[in-house]
Amino acid sequence: YPRLQVGVAPDARVQLVERHLGGCGPQSLVCPSVSVSVGAGAALDHYRLQQCASDVLFLDTLTGEAAAGARWSVRTADCGAATSRSTALLRLAGADAALDWQSLAIAHGGQHCDLMLRVEHAARGTRTTQQYRGICTEEGHAACSAEMRVLAQAGSARIAQSLRGLLEGARAEIDLRPRLEIHTDEVQAAHGATTGRLDDTLLFYLLSRGLEPDTARAL
User: Fold this and answer.
1) How far apart are CA 135 and CA 87, in angstroms?
2) pTM for this one?
3) Rg, C-alpha atoms of the chain
């Protein structure tokens, strides 16, 4: 049960790297809790890697708040554990605060990888950009539920969501759910979700060059 609390002072510049690796025995349970506060005018580059052992149950929670003019950049990669479930509850509390969230989820075999992201825009001029990419093979399962909430006082807010999934295998599954809850008319918002399979033409091109099927699919 690792717990991390980070406070970024106003106008500071910080890089934060989280790595969750291995396990602590057969059928381990790993439950990290991370809390972040980004001060006014500060910039936080936040990297998160989950690459636990194949029999780990990984349940983590990220909470945080960004003050006026703060910039918070999050890069996540989930590619380990038998089951990975991440919850992120973030709040853009100050005017012109910005969040840039980009995440990659990879589920092979029977792995499950779930993300629930909720961002609350609570001040004017706040901005969120979110990109999610999920890749599932064999019986892998990935899910992303992303909710953007814009309060009445958060005029001039801007939101861009892009959720995409790639399937390889008859029983692979990806569930994507972008959501917007907007309580003001003064907002720019766009979202979309797509899921598809490998391009047959590109795959044929690689096979015609003599590559083995597994290698071609991996490329």
Assistant:
1) 19
2) 0.91
3) 19
* Beta-bridge mates of residue 178: 146
Q: Other C-beta atoms within 10 Å of 118: how many?
A: 16
**Total Cβ atoms within 10 A of residue 31:** 12
> Contact, 139 vs 172, CB < 8 A?
yes
Residue 47 contacts by C-beta under 8 Å, 6 or more apart in sequence? 15, 16, 17, 18, 75, 76
Q: What residue type is 123 in one-letter code? A: A
| Encoded tokens for 35 | 């809390």
Tell me how far CA of residue 46 lies from CA of 17, 64, 72, in angstroms: 6, 12, 7
- Condensed to tens digits (0 to 9), the pLDDT of residues 14-68 reads 999 999 998 877 778 999 999 999 999 999 999 999 999 999 999 999 999 999 9
